[in-house]
Amino acid sequence: MAEHRSMQRAALLDAARTLLSEGGTEALTFPALAERTGLARSSVYEYFRSRAAVVEELCEVDFPVWAAEVAAAMACADGPAAKVEAYVRKQLELVGDRRHRAVVAISASELDAGAREKIRAAHGGLVAMIVEALGELGHEQPRLAAMLLQGVVDAAVRRIELGAAEDPAAIAEAAVGMALRGVCG
Asked: Structure pTM?
């Protein structure tokens, strides 16, 4: 029975990822989840109390996988500048990943305070990955630099997701350039 519930929950999360990545916030409804999984709508409520609860669990499940991919890319890089580049590039590569699109599809304002705090903590863990490399590059305040760097990455992510006029590769190059040389570099 526990295995069946676990499989149903996984199927619901997978359906939520698909709905969010294909149609954004509006697409994530309990009737749509029920239709995608073959469950009755009332059964969906047995697994999740709200859309925010679905998104919160997606973050808990998917964010560590995403962060591990960023960490792995950084681990393969040689030297602090290469680590910064890998940190930026890998996050931007993941923009097209269904797990990432699902997590960013719902704005934080739709989540309860607990869910927003979990997402903030997860992002804090991501930012913490780059602090050491920034310190090695001579930043006097590497934590602050890491937060600002993540702001550049977040802006590039939004630009890519908006389907901006620029090619995603050009956006990535600009973000890497800003990360390594600043705006005037």
From this structure: 0.79
